[in-house]
Amino acid sequence: MQKFQRFLPFLRWFPMTGDTVRADLIAGITVALVLIPQSMAYAQLAGLPAYYGLYAAFLPVLIAALWGSSSQLGTGPVAVVSLLTATAVAQFAEIGSPEFIGLAIMLAFLVGVFQLLLGIFRLGVIVNFLSHPVIVGFTNAAALIIAFSQLSKIFGVSMQRSEHFLVDVWDVVMQVGSTHIPTLLYGLVA
Fold first, then answer.
1. Mutual orientation of helices 18-45 and 51-67 as an angle, nearest 10°?
2. Could you tell me the residue ranges of all domains in the chain?
3. Element holding 134 (H helix, E strand)
4. Structure confidence by residue, pLDDT tens digits, 116-158
5. How far apart are CA 135 and CA 142, in angstroms?
6. Exposure of 19 in the CB half-sphere (CA atoms within 13 A)
7. Are 94 and 56 in contact (CB under 8 A)?
8. For residues 134 and 142, is the Cβ–Cβ distance under 8 A?
9. Which helix (H) or strand (E) holds 104?
10. CA–CA separation, 153 and 166 (whole Å)
11. What are 70-122's pLDDT values in tens digits?
């Protein structure tokens, strides 16, 4: 039985009691209420239709629940990965086109294979060679790009994407007079 539990860690769940089922149900509902709208937004940030975010929310969480070894590890879509996906694939296809969607799916598959190989060969320690300033700079730049890319949505105005996000921000600033007030109020209150 120990050998099975090593490869199928979800077998350790049994027997389940009423208290653990109730706690797991509450946790699942809580995660779903946050993850569903968040994953749909991340899909749009990646240049994909919103329903692809639902796939990204469901499948990784299911796999982590069944085969993950950490109860603290968060799984699912991440804003930085969404932004990097859009940036990488936009060089080869128009955002939102069927080719773009296919390339984004292929990129996700290849990244998954690469991560699996890194895990199998225990090469996760490579991350230790990245300096702290590089990680902080990357994270801060990604946060700014993500925040500014959402300006058009919070102001309720249209934005045509260009190659430089500062041009996009300027486009939104020039349309501030056309702000949709209910959208802005909802965004500020949320």
1. 140
2. 2-149
3. helix 132-149
4. 899 889 898 888 888 999 999 988 988 888 888 888 888 888 8
5. 11
6. 0
7. no
8. no
9. helix 98-120
10. 16
11. 777 778 899 889 989 998 999 999 999 999 999 999 999 999 999 989 988 98
